[in-house]
Structure formats: structure tokens, C-alpha cells
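fyi for ur records
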Amino acid sequence: MYKLILFLVLFASSIPAHKSLATPKTSEISVNKEVILTLLSPTINNEVQNYYKKYLTVPVSLPPYAMKIIEINKPDTTNQYKFQLVIELNPYVGPHLGVGQDILTLTIDLDGITVDELKHIKDEELPPHWKHIKKEN
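which gave:
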């Protein structure tokens, strides 16, 4: 009987008294994409700012959550460390007012990051009280 009581006490003390407040694990793929976008953010933002400064009087915002990796591939089968990424970008101004949609193609290898192409897909219509930020062309 003593052994049974000792076992129950030890077993009960190993059970948490409350439910865990930890959130469920984020999938590994999602985390990997978030890391990639975070590391590429300075390069991407520089390219996007250079494009939109021709059309807007204020800088655009483009945090990683406004980017989506569309494709990752290896264009060169002989180079194990060369990757091409295609990323959809949705920059905005002010209180998350979309200014457009763009597709950026990057090549990443051991020498660094190269911007291959920034393709502007569409403009977003700004509300009347934000139209003043558009430059006259």
C-alpha cells in the first residue's frame, strides 16, 4: 500500500496544475518563409522605395507580412547554393492604404543578393484625402 501511495504522489506531482498557455507551434515552412522575408527585407525595401519615390511624395511601408513568397527554385543545377525567389509585394502608405502590387524576382547565391526584376502589376486607388501624395507626371 505504501508503494502505491508513493507512486500516486510522485505521479500527481509531475502533472501540471494548469493548462499550458503556450501557443501551438508554427509550422516549420511558415517560420522558414518568415526568416527569409525578414533577412531579405532591407534589399526588397530599397528596391521598392526606389520605384515608388518616382510616383509618391512619401515613402511606402513594406513589412514582411505584406510580402508573399510565390516561388523558390534552383535555376542552376550545377550550383547547389544558388536560388531564385519570386515574391509578391503589397506596399502601403499611412493606415495600410495599398498603393499597388508588385512582383520581385531575386537571385541569391554565395556572392549575395541580386535583384533581377521588379514588375509593377497594378496600382491601387487611394482615397480622396490621400491623393495629394501622388506626384504629377
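The chain has two helices and six strands. thats all i got for now
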